[in-house]
Amino acid sequence: MSARAWAALLERYGQAVVLRRGEMEISCRAFLQPIRDTGGEQQLPSPLGLRREDRFLYLGGSGQPLELGDQVAWGGGDYEVVSTHPICLGTQVWYIWAVLCPMDKEAQG
């Protein structure tokens, strides 16, 4: 698959997302889906109540690299980047692979 074919797939089938780094916001497209972990709970107890433990896989274009702590707005929710890696073929970055964690609404406000 060529980089051009990957970009065409993102444009046609990717979900609309907004990447946030500080005050900067970038609208783009990416593939997102829940990471299904059959061995763990989606919510775990914490001293302040239940805490979400679900994670989401993000596959995005090479032109929009992510950094730890960046935020992604998608589907009415906000997510924080907890892991990110550029996926390369040779020396060229083909796409960005990341794991997102839902952000706590109380922590945002």
Distance between the termini: 43 Å
CATH names the topology as Thrombin, subunit H
Question: Strand arrangement, largest sheet?
Answer: 1-2-5-8-7-6
Helical/strand content category: mainly beta
Q: At CATH's second level, what is the architecture?
A: Beta Barrel
Order of helices and strands: HEEEEEEEEH
Could you give a quick summary of the protein structure above?
By secondary structure, the chain is mainly beta. The chain has helices at residues 3-13, 105-108; strands at 15-21, 24-34, 43-46, 49-52, 56-61, 71-74, 77-89, 92-102. The chain starts with a helix and ends with a helix.
Outline the structure in words.
The protein has 109 residues and is mainly beta. It has a single domain, classed as Thrombin, subunit H, CATH 2.40.10. It is 14% helix and 55% strand. The strands form two sheets. Strands 1-2-5-8-7-6 form a six-stranded antiparallel beta barrel. A two-stranded antiparallel sheet has the order 3-4. The model has no long low-confidence stretch (mean pLDDT 83).
